[in-house]
């Protein structure tokens, strides 16, 4: 019998070593994907570092750089503090490199397998944190941009798409639910990482350090353990595998997007269907990410003192009162995070029942009504309706991410869906720039022209509503892919050969291991490993959210 030796790590990561036996329990794959996505999701929570890093030199108060100092000098100086606007470039780099790396290396992922891609993602994400820690220690912001923004961004892209194709193949009967479970983790990662980072920074803070670089190193070590464990937990189904008792749905009916054929990556991304879905995702994310970026200031500026029972506008509040409403706004953003992750699972699972196209129709029509109603809710001081509308909006923002992999699998088949999804992630990179820029510039323009803070978001809401109507039109135009574009049996066989899917894969070893892992207690242990930290993050978030309703 063959065996796995510790010294043969490249072999352990090889695609052929991850092919499961028919006895493998497929419910062990989602927690492996969640382990990786929960770590990567800290990208959403990176703003927790901005204020401490903005006073890394001054410690108690920021030391401003001289106005005469050039941008290049600010990048390399060690004598004054970084502006938050400079630190914010990390967030932009995250999603630019997430989308671009997923697009560039999506094809490699299909050939190399999810295990190797997940392992490389762990090295990039955690290695990026180590580089950032060094950059903070020597006060060089360009190392922070390079470490977390660029190297970490590549890890985000590879890690984000690493489980997509695998989960869809393991769950052909529940494509939406499977991808929803994994991508839910990306939305929930900040709920764990942000409060953990806050506690670590307070622990490491000294009279000469704000504790950020030490926190980066601890997070890197923790994330490396979880991400490598998740990557090694990936398994691919053997050729011809299907769930017991499952009957594939009928395909090929008129107007149906479902098919049992495959479209090659090089063909898929040139089709009108690909670019229509690209536009659908871009428009949905542009509207949602714009809301995420302005949710806290919007709540404070629209409702002002009403958040703490005082009939006063935001500008009329004292510093102490502004601090009190900021705490309420923190609860609001925490509540939005819960709906963001819950929506990823709920809407993707619902799409298994009603179809992907109908799910996106719901996003755009319901979203249009809610966005257009926000100014009316704000004018009427309807706080409960306002909060409820934003919670539903954020659930659909998350649902858009988790539903789109199954949408692609329906149209282009499962053979290369991971690589196709990688190309589609350029939509996220595009929306990550468009959404915040659109919202922030419109707000600044409104305020500069004398519009009251409580009304400065009205035009923004109407513009975002219009974007959703455009998304509805794009979704309506999606049609089934022409049969002439399907891969031939010979092409499918050639791709299988390139990916080593047709070889016997250490069956004698894997059957024994798989049967052991198929025991229910193993599944329970795997799920507990990811749900315990997630439950802790949810509890912390709920505690903050309750502040709104005291």
The name of the CATH topology of the largest domain is Growth Hormone, Chain: A
The total count of strands amounts to 0
Estimate the global geometry from the Cα principal axes: globular
Q: Compute the average pLDDT.
A: 85
Strand content: under 5%
The CATH first-level class of the largest domain comes to Mainly Alpha
Helix content class: 55-70%
Query: How far from one another are the termini?
Result: 64 Å
Structural class: mainly alpha
Roughly how many Å is the radius of gyration?
24 Å
CATH architectural category of the largest domain: Up-down Bundle
Largest sheet: number of strands, sense, barrel closure: none
SSE order in H/E notation? HHHHHHHHHHHHHHHHHHHHHH
Number of helices: 22
Low-confidence parts, pLDDT < 50 over ≥5 residues? 1-7, 502-518
Written overview of the protein:
The chain is mainly alpha-helical and 550 residues long. Helices cover 69% and strands 0% of the residues. It contains 22 helices and no strands. The chain has helices spanning 9-13, 29-40, 50-53, 71-76, 84-87, 89-112, 114-137, 141-161, 164-170, 175-204, 212-232, 265-268, 272-303, 319-354, 356-379, 383-412, 417-424, 426-448, 458-477, 489-498, 507-517, 520-545. α13 runs antiparallel to α19 (458-477) and α14 (319-354) runs antiparallel to α15 (356-379). The model is unreliable at 1-7 and 502-518 (pLDDT under 50).
